[in-house]
Amino acid sequence: GSFDLIILDPPAFTKSRRTVDHAYHGYQQINLDAMNLLKENHGYLATCSCSRYMETALFETMLKETAAKAGVILKQISVSQQNADHPVLWTMDETSYLKFYLFQITTI
């Protein structure tokens, strides 16, 4: 089947630095599955991570690698963090934990 929109909002895949590699592969697998289901209709993917140890740069690297594996182009529509009720304190890295991306999936 194919879909127009898939929202991936899993629980934290890691709660420590030791298991970041495992979390990386978990995020990669669910995003790969979603991209493959969306590419036929050029659908939309909303994907999130609330794992504070899955840093933004690493999450974005995972998304780029996954898109290449799926043979799709990620057209970024929106990027966001948590709302003001969960403020990011620049002196405490652990407060910047939520990452949200909305993409349109197109084929190469």
Task: Provide the descriptors you would attach to this structure in a database record.
Rossmann fold, 2 helices, 26% strand
CATH H-level superfamily: Vaccinia Virus protein VP39
Helix percent band: 25-40%
Low-confidence stretches: none
CATH architecture assignment name? 3-Layer(aba) Sandwich
- What is the C-level CATH assignment? Alpha Beta
Q: How many domains make up the coordinates?
A: 1
Arithmetic mean of pLDDT: 95
- Note the main sheet: 4 strands, mixed
Task: Determine Rg (CA atoms, Å).
Answer: 14 Å
Oligomerization status of the protein chains: single chain
Structural account:
The mean pLDDT is 95. Strands 1-2-4-3 form a 4-stranded mixed beta sheet, covered by helices on one side. It has 108 residues and is an alpha+beta fold. It has one domain: Vaccinia Virus protein VP39 (Rossmann fold, 3-Layer(aba) Sandwich), CATH 3.40.50.
Brief rundown of the structure:
The protein is α+β, with helices and mostly antiparallel strands. The chain is 31% helix and 26% strand. The protein has a single domain (5-107), classed as Vaccinia Virus protein VP39 (Rossmann fold, 3-Layer(aba) Sandwich), CATH 3.40.50.150.
